[in-house]
Each structure stands twice: as structure tokens, then as C-alpha cells.
Amino acid sequence: MDQILYEVKDRVAVITLNRPEAANAQTMALLDDLDAAWSRAASDAEVRVIVLKANGRHFSSGHDLKGGGGPAPDKITLEHIYGVEARRYLEYTLRWRNVPKPSIAAVQGKCIAGGLMLCWPCDLIVAAENAQFSDPVVHMGIGGVEYHGHTWELGPRKAKEILFTGRPVTADEAEKVGMVNRVVPLDELETTAMELAGQIAQMHPFALRQAKRAVNQTLDVQGFYAAVQSVFDIHQTGHGNALSDGGFPVLMRLDGMKDKLKSQ
Description:
By secondary structure, this protein is of the alpha/beta class. It is 47% helix and 15% strand. It has helices at 28-43, 78-97, 116-119, 150-154, 156-165, 171-176, 189-201, 205-221, 224-244, 248-259; strands spanning 4-9, 12-17, 49-54, 103-107, 110-112, 124-128, 132-134, 169-170, 182-184. Strands 1-2-3-4-6-9 form a six-stranded mixed sheet, sandwiched between helices. Strands 5-7-8 form a three-stranded mixed sheet. Strand 1 (4-9) and strand 2 form a beta hairpin. The longest helix is centred in the last third of the chain and has 21 residues, at 224-244. It starts with a strand and ends in a 5-residue tail after the last helix. The model has no long low-confidence stretch (mean pLDDT 90).
């Protein structure tokens, strides 16, 4: 089964995460296919808006920590981790953020750690009432996922709270702080996202591009791009600590938490 589905409807490209049996955990292949889908939508002149959604009960349980390929844990070095994450995590997420077309994420169920790195680069987020957003990687001895949108999406104090405690942010809470645009019943999630995309697709494509650039550039002037680059290196010190402190058993236990989602 394809891990990423792609179709175009009425000038809207719909990209769908398609590993429902694994709570849409992200393998390296899935991320590569996802990036290809984003690039396809960006280069298609007929596409004006991009919608990212997921099949199954959960949007994404994050990175697939034991099924993503690569060397065995005892062969992994910080150099290897840095190279893989610089490309597939930081480079990909920044590229998706800067695609010059409006994008909408439709999120249901759990959105954990690496899942945030799929929805945060989108311009708008529509969440089902049951959506929960969390980044529990402090349990691994790491200060947060590679793409540090936390401070920008939640504000500094709320960002510290969810990182320090690992607790999930509910859809309603996320809407109150401005991370989510709309919260809707689960059975209305896809319809709402597609209706919003259709409304945006009626606008002038060049004006949409310029409006998006204006907002993103403003955030970059305020320090977003430099901060994300800097915090990525901070994240790598966490990997170094995990490697030196026997952190892979901890990593596996965290992945065990995700396994529970597959049957839910």
C-alpha cells in the first residue's frame, strides 16, 4: 500500500498520510514520498491550495523509531543522526512551510512529536474535536523535536509547559492560543478543510503567494528561521546525551507508547 496518496480536486491538491495500521508513524520512505507530493503540488500550475490529511484514527504518532530503516542502534553515531535529520526533518519541513501556495492541515486523534512537524509547516490547521498535540521527547533526554515551532505556535510559557510535562494540548486549547484555526466535529473535519480550501482557491494565485510570503517573511524578520536553525543544533546535543547515556532503550520505550495507538 502506498504510504502517501495524492490527488487533485478542483484546484486543490490533497495529500494523504496512509499508514493507518501504524497510526501514520513516519518512516524515511514515507517522508521522502511526502516531500515528493509537496513538490508535485508546488510545481502544478493547476493547483492553488494544498490539503494535508491522514487516513485512520490518528493524524500521526510521529517518527517510526524502530521501523524506519538504517543501521542497528549500536551502529548509530551522532554524525549519522545529524545528516539524516538535517535533510528529512529540518530541510523538508522548512521547504513545506515555504511552498508558495496556501496549505491546510486536517488533524484528528493523536499528533505526537514528529506529527507536529507535518502540521506546523502548513499555513492553516483545522482540528477535529478529538485532536491532541504533544511533544513528549523530553522522556528521551531531548528538549523537543527537530523543528522548533513550539514557541511560535504556543507562546513561550505554554511551550515550556508542554515540553516540561509532555502533556497533550487539546484542540480547544490549541485554538485559544492561535495554533489551530478551527475546531470541528470529527465527521466534519475533511468537509470543513476542503470547503476552506475551495474558498481560498477562488482567490488570485499571485496575491495568495504574496500574502503568504508577507506573513512568513515577517516571522523570519522576527527571528523564526534563525531560531529554528539554532534549536535544531540544540536538539542534536540531546541525541549526543542519549547515545552516551544508553538512551536507545529509552527511545524504544517511547516507541512502545506509540504501539498502543495502533490498536485504538
